[in-house]
Amino acid sequence: MDPEELVSGYYIGYDGDLKTQNFVAPGGSMIATAQDVGIFLRALNDGSLLNADEQAIYSSIYVYEHTGLLPGYSGIARYHKDIDTGVILFVNTSGGNSWTALEMVYNRIVKILRRQSAKQ
């Protein structure tokens, strides 16, 4: 992927752009779009990714979500079974209180989606 196409990452208190950093850590430096993550979450939920035995094992140890961060980036990806919806939110800022703000915005989005789902 062309680095020019990537969203810049910023860390509160650091003036540089972190998008070109290669983070070699347990979390790695994976690049994905929100759409890619949504497709993956859907496949985990609808059984199209794993066979029945694998799905049973996976479901026993994993809740359909992922949260994570690297310097300059934060994200939440969760499948909400009650409204059959995956919600993915990526933010290109980390540090300070940015995680608290991310969770607040994410929870607000889910609340709106649940309200809309109840009206249908």
Q: How would you describe this protein?
A:
The protein has one domain. It contains 3 helices and 5 strands. A hairpin with a 2-residue loop joins strand 2 and strand 3. The chain has helices at 34-46, 52-61, 98-119, and strands at 10-11, 65-70, 73-80, 85-91, 93-94. The longest helix has 22 residues, at 98-119. The radius of gyration is 16 Å and the shape is globular. The chain is of the alpha+beta class and 120 residues long.
**How many domains in all?**
1
| H/E series | EHHEEEEH
> Which residues sit in consecutive blocks of at least 5 with pLDDT less than 50?
none
The helicity comes to: 25-40%
Taking Cα atoms only, what radius of gyration do you get, to the nearest Å?
16 Å
Residue fraction in strands = 15-25%
Main beta-sheet annotation: 3 strands, antiparallel
Biggest sheet, spatial arrangement of strands: 2-3-4
- Structural class, please? alpha+beta
Q: Report the mean per-residue pLDDT as an integer.
A: 85
What is the strand tally? 5
Terminus-to-terminus distance: 40 Å
Shape: globular
Number of discrete helical segments: 3
